Amino acid sequence: MQLIEWQLDRLDELVSLWNQELGKDFPMRKELFEQNSFQDENICYDASRIAVNEEGQIIGFVVGKRWQEEVEIPMKDKTGWIQVILVHHEYRNKGIGSNLLRHAEEAFQLAGMQEILLGKDPWHYFPGVPLDSYDNWFETRGYHSFGKEFDMLCKYEGEVAKELPALPNVEFSILKHEEKEAFLAFLHRCFPGRWEYEAHQYFQKGGNGREFAVLKKENKIIGFSRINDNSSPLIAQNVYWAPLFSQELGGIGPLGVDSVERGNGYGIAIVQAAIAFLRNRDIKHIVIDWTGLVDFYRKLDYEVWKGYTSYRKVL
Q1: Is the peptide bond before 130 cis (omega within 30 degrees of 0)?
Q2: pLDDT grade, residue 159 (50/70/90)?
Q3: CATH fold for the domain made of 153-306
Q4: Which pTM was predicted?
Q5: Nearest alpha-carbon partner for 80 in 67, 98, 97, 93
Q6: Band (177; pLDDT cuts 50, 70, 90)
Q7: End-to-end CA distance of the chain
């Protein structure tokens, strides 16, 4: 077994291994893997490696990331992320996974990282370790769990819902391109960090606003929800696993309301508006990803679809 550098020219083989081992629950597309595991500027090539056997065939890999973009948005610059670590089932229990993980950890230490998270990276696949997937393996290597996250799903039947929530003194709409700067200013003020970063990335990759439902009061944005579908300019997290569905998949999230406007029912209303916008696009299956608010979304008939355990290791 040998560890070699992370290489785009092995894309087909990497995706093939992923689908062989994880494709039943998390079917990978080449476009998604290239987007998240090669095009992200935060990939730590020193921490990422491909394991090959004596014939040069890929038998495992690890993708590590650390914050490297130069943007004026507060992000975790002392955190290393393991985006994914995977070993061919015929080569497990031979120390290959341990070698891959050890390599990534040593690279993060040399780079001055103070902690490692499993998943949750920029352009992530998972917000943690999928439930029942090697939890004990990570625990025996110094990782500690700190909560659960879930993806939730609703399958709609019947006619398309056309009605937006009716609340006094507010309105719901799809973000217009000319409202871009006002929207980014709202995110910078109310939700600085990851959500702001993801919105900047969205516009940089050609977004025109159709992926954001906004809540306005006196013509001022006070809330938002991201909505995604097959026509979005990038493959967004809540539609990663769309190949599992025979019909188009839609996604909702992240979402939020200005803290000074909370307590008025706006939170659930912006979700209802997002659902209505997607349903009017004739989308019948909608996923809300990476949430711990299970009871909240159950009020809207969403149920847990996939679950994850959050893990951290302090260096």
Answers
A1: no
A2: confident
A3: Aminopeptidase (3.40.630)
A4: 0.95
A5: 67
A6: very high
A7: 27
Q: For tokens 């679809």, name the residue.
A: 305
**pLDDT per residue over 267-308, tens digit each?**
999 999 999 999 999 999 999 999 999 999 999 999 999 999
Residue 73 token pair: 């948005």
C-alpha closest to that of 226 among 246, 263, 245, 201: 201
Q: Residue 269: which residues within 8 A CB-CB, separation 6 or more?
A: 165, 167, 170, 172, 215
Which residue is listed with tokens 């609703």? 154
- The residues pairing with 252 across neighbouring beta strands, listed in sequence order, are 227, 288
Cα 14 to Cα 29: distance, rounded to the nearest angstrom: 11
- Token pair 């550098």: residue: 5
State the architecture of 2-125 in CATH terms.
Answer: 3-Layer(aba) Sandwich (3.40)
Chain centroid to Cα 138, Å, comes to 21
Cβ atoms of 174 and 210 closer than 8 Å: yes
Domain definitions of the chain by residue range: 2-125, 153-306
